[in-house]
What does this fold into?
Amino acid sequence: MHPVQLPVIGAVAAWRAQARGFLRDGIRPQEIDWRGGGTLFDTQARPTAVPQAGASYSVGKTALSTIETALSHSDVDRYARAYQVLWRMAHERLRFGDRSDPQMRKLLDQAKAVRRDIHKMHAFVRFREGPGHGNRRAFAAWFEPEHPIVEAATPFFAKRFGDMDWVIATPILTATFKNGALSFAETSDTTPPPEDATEDLWCTYYASIFNPARLMTQAMQSEMPKKYWKNLPEARLIPDLVHGARARSRAMQDAAPTQPPAFFEAIARAEERVADAPIEGGLAGLKAQAARCTRCELACHATQLVWGEGPEDAPLMVVGEQPGDQEDLQGRPFVGLAGQLLREVAQNAGLDLRQAYVTNAVKHFKFRPRGRRRIHQRPNTGEVVACKWWLDLELRHVKPRLTLALGATAARALTGDGGAIRERRGRIEMGDRGGDVLITMHPSYLLRLPAEDKALAMQAFVEDISRAAAHVEAHWADQDGR
Amino acid sequence: MAPRSLSEKLSILADAAKYDASCASSGGERRNSRDGKGLGSSGGSGICHSYAPDGRCISLLKILMTNFCIYDCAYCVNRASSRIERARFTVEEVVHLTVEFYRRNYIEGLFLSSGIIRSPDDTMADMVRIVRTLREQENFRGYVHLKTIPDASPELLEEAGKWADRLSINVELPTQKGLDALAPEKDLGEIRKAMGEVRLRREASREKTYRGKRKAKFAPAGQSTQMIVGADGANDTTILHQSANLYANYSLSRVYYSAFSPIPDSSKVLPLKSPPLVREHRLYQADWLLRFYGFEAGELADGGMLDLEVDPKLAWALRHRAAFPVDVNRATREELLRVPGFGTRSVQRILGARRHRRLRYEDLAAIGAVMKNAKPFIVADGWSPGGLTDAANLRARFAPPPEQLSLI
It folds into this structure.
């Protein structure tokens, strides 16, 4: 039998060193007494310092940290169990995390209980201020954890309260943080620190944040069990708050509505003045009207209206399908990837898109939510028709010499014909409200194409854009000629 | 009138803030003060430092800067037409309370909201000033959640995102119709635009610059919102659709649901009865199903409302018996996630254990699945539900027994 006596402070590290040695030496779990030798001068069988060949065994990082966490449990058999689990992992192919094994399951459950206890210590320690040293303020707390977790739980406080000195005393160990150094000692003084005036403010807050209309004491107690109440200043208020809750809630419901205070009318008058302000005319006026559009349902789901942009007398109007994710957030047309491609191609063709009026056939983004993403959906005929009202108004205002329809949706909205783009692209058709409409594909189609088909399609797209550019050139030439 | 004491102000302004359900303090940037030059830490899982008798956790100092407000939202305790007591904190008072509470380990940080005073910009500017003072003068590294005002200017929003961990804007009600009736000054469009703005700025802050440097953080713990349940006529389907939409549109971290609760000096247009708290609970459960279990908004609430007696996943399974029983040894992750009694962690453990051997009924219990709920819907080694899956009285096994109505 190998008796092992682990120290009160630093037990986990000591266990680890011992266990490593025992495992290396092939000492079976039943040969070790982890509860410590009874006699003080017992001959402690120390693991040999010389490693034996082929006996090394390594444990995964999460497994080791879970085992170490479980060692902070108050169960007296914890050290023996942890070594047994380790031994069986090394020699009996026990898989770490296998909950069907009772011993493994017990260890995992104890690790969980310790983690919970640590979490509750982080939550329920209450510091009280005492006399400080120099420019560092000093605080102290008394806390009674369920398990011996002081060493595992207090580094958290060192990270959080780095600029102050503090002491957390528990029935077994006391953690002291002074001038940035954390140390542990066995507790000698078990009197809680004296009260602190800020506790009254905290109790005021606690009482005020409680909503008596939704009393749920069970929910409170499952997360803040009564065993912790003793050291929580706010817990003193709980009985009275619970007792008076029903009456307070009843009184609120029974109270008759009152007259508004005097300043309310003054505010209401100020509001009216703002509401009467006139709306600008022209395209800007139309935009303001369209922002309140309810002709179809799309507006309910999108962020905002994405109205056209560009000079009101532009010779070219470019019509896309609908705004996408980025356009919807920014409120401007063609700012996403497809817009960038269009701008690039146009620039190469000598066409400055800033001189064109760019807009979409449908003015709100249509999509299906999937988790944190939005999946683009093509607008249906009803939505295209509903939004054509606005597109026609834009056309009437801008009166472009040529309209460029990008993709099937735009082509349908402008010509009334929903036929396939493949046969129609590059042609100039007549718009259903008159005027010339040049049909081409939507740039996002190009973005989706596989590489081998892309070159040909891109060539066609560039051709069409160049054709539109030529129209614009002709327009400026006519203007100069006049 | 004598000036109010700090304690009186705290009492008024905490009371006014308690109807906001948000309490999260998790995620975001990892910070600590181990260097001894500041106070506080954040990142990782949040901590609930206390619980009020209403069962809600207290993790942040949740207060209003002021409860004066020029808006008149019927459901709100601070609306302009209410005769409640009014107060206003100074910058120093909020900073003092936050730091002193934090040092005593009462809180994880500050959740600052406010009534609208003078104008949205003025209010927002004052709130940003408070957070900035906390960060710059007190070197406060704890968590800060700032409620943003939808109509405030973009410069102030930029500044707010720089100092706060989380920003939130409450949509309050799921439809514009509801807002028109109860909160005439609020415009869903403006709220959505502001959320879109926050998402764009967050995404921009994550991109690296041309020189490969990281840009300044913007609201690293994300944005959230709150909807009030039961104040207007909106049903659960409408609410869940709105949530799914907000998660997708603006990458929200959370949507909070707050059952409309009676308030002091309430308005005439509000319903007399508050909705059952269990409705709020069911909405949270459904929200989780949307985010972590692959459910869609349309399939959860049958006939518009969630079942109050059984949880939404169980209710779905009871309505879709044809999809069950599921064989735990062969089913896909997606199928397992739809089994009542299996949480995301159970499913993860099932998939992990399955790689080593076949699972028996007892193994599932050891894994932590709630077998009472799962039993009728699964097949495992040593277990088959037989006729239980299709039993006519299956629902009755889960629903609470009918109660006899009492005669007043």
About this structure: Chain B touches chain A through 88 residues (CB under 8 Å).
